[in-house]
Amino acid sequence: MTRARRVLLSLVMIALAGVVGLPLYYIVVNTFKTQPDMTATPLGLPSPWYFGNYTEIFDRVQILRSFANTLYVTIGSVLVQLAVGAMAAYGIVMRATRFNRVVGVVLLIAFVVPTQATLIPLYRTLVEVELVDSLNGLIVMYAGGAIFSFFLIHGYMKTLPFEIVEAARIDGAGVWQIFWRIVLPLIKPILITVGVFQTMWVWNDFITPNVFISSPDKRTVVLQVYNAVGEFTTDWPAFMTLSVVALVPMVVFFVFTQRHIVNGLLSGGVKG
């Protein structure tokens, strides 16, 4: 690539980054303004800097409770998804029977069915087992994400050196010993990658908690932001402040885990 093309590519990328970053700048900078200041200079820097929006958010909104709810649901859901996905992939890879192939096809069909098409029957099912308006009910709902985990882990697991597994069998290791002591350490990269994907999905999901949660003390962070729209209709800086507070954990999480996404996916590709 010539120098001129590199310069042109850099300019294009900078321009695109500016376009993408402008909404984020608009939101963040206006969290440090009062309503009149925002109306007067929506894109200008605050003068003076106003931090009252942040203290007001924590005083008026149960944001810490929402963070706790979201953290509980996210950790529980992701652990269930990884456990079910890993064990399902292990069973199908280790025993490539006709029945297991049929199960794989059924899972593929279930994966392509949009969640919105199943909300009504799922809601009625959770009503029957008394899990509507429950954080545990949300975990049960998100457990369906194990299908996505299964497909990624299954593809990665097929690239493993199964000579090690055969050697363990000859030494007398059982199915669970092989899974816990050999397979799990070998698939750690893809487990981390899938965990990152699913954590961001569960944390940022809006549809599921909006349908299945009604009590204010059980709201997730995203649902809390949505319900604040009416409360902060005439106070947009306060609403933007709540949005920023809700985004910060996932931004930090992504910054520290983005390398695992690339490494996990590339490891499976290289081994294949």
Automatic annotation (TrEMBL):
It is a multi-pass membrane protein. It comes from Plantactinospora soyae. Residues 67-257 form the ABC transmembrane type-1 domain. SUPFAM superfamilies: MetI-like. It comes from the Bacteria. It is found in: Cell membrane. This is Raffinose/stachyose/melibiose transport system permease protein. Belongs to the binding-protein-dependent transport system permease family. The chain crosses the membrane at residues 7-28, 71-90, 102-123, 135-157, 178-203, 236-256. GO terms for biological process: transmembrane transport. Coiled coil: none annotated. InterPro entries: MetI-like, MetI-like_sf. GO terms for cellular component: plasma membrane. Gene3D superfamilies: MetI-like (1.10.3720.10). CDD domains: TM_PBP2. The keyword Zinc-finger does not apply.
